[in-house]
Amino acid sequence: MYMFDDKFKDMIVSCLTEALNAKDLKSALEKSSKIITAFYPNTKLWFTKSFGKRWSFIAGAGVDSFIEPQRIEYQDGYAAFLQNFTFQQEEEKAVLTDLFKIITTIQHQ
Predict the structure, then answer these.
(1) Can you give the pTM of this predicted structure?
(2) How far is residue 30 from each of residues 15, 52, 60, 88, measured CA to CA in Å?
(3) What is the pLDDT of residues 3-53, one digit of tens each?
């Protein structure tokens, strides 16, 4: 089992705190994406909702690059796009995916 460092844990706690205090899903995802992209410099993260075959932007933050983003469909009808992310361990991506699920479930209206 991978042990996460304190900075990663603090980032997750900060995201959860901001998301729980946010007024709606868009605000929660916007605040979380800013925290996450500050933790992972030179990255971009954005969230979308599916309407049939179209993905509609909800919120995001970060720096554009010419690297193709990775789409993670983390909940029915919702996806996160991660661009230029390099994780210390693959478990970090799994924790972020779980974080996205929690935020969306709590703030979905």
Answers:
(1) 0.92
(2) 10, 23, 5, 24
(3) 788 999 999 999 999 999 999 999 999 999 999 999 999 999 999 999 988
Tokens of 17: 């705190």
Contacts 24+ apart (CB under 8 A), 84-87: 84/42, 84/43, 84/44, 85/40, 85/43, 85/45, 86/40
Tokens standing for 38? 């500050």
52: region left, alpha or beta (phi > 0 left; psi from -120 to 50 alpha) = left
Please give the structure tokens belonging to residue 94.
């799994």
| CA–CA separation, 43 and 65 (whole Å) | 8
Q: In this structure, what are the phi and psi dihedrals at residue 25, rounded to the nearest 5 degrees? A: -60, -45
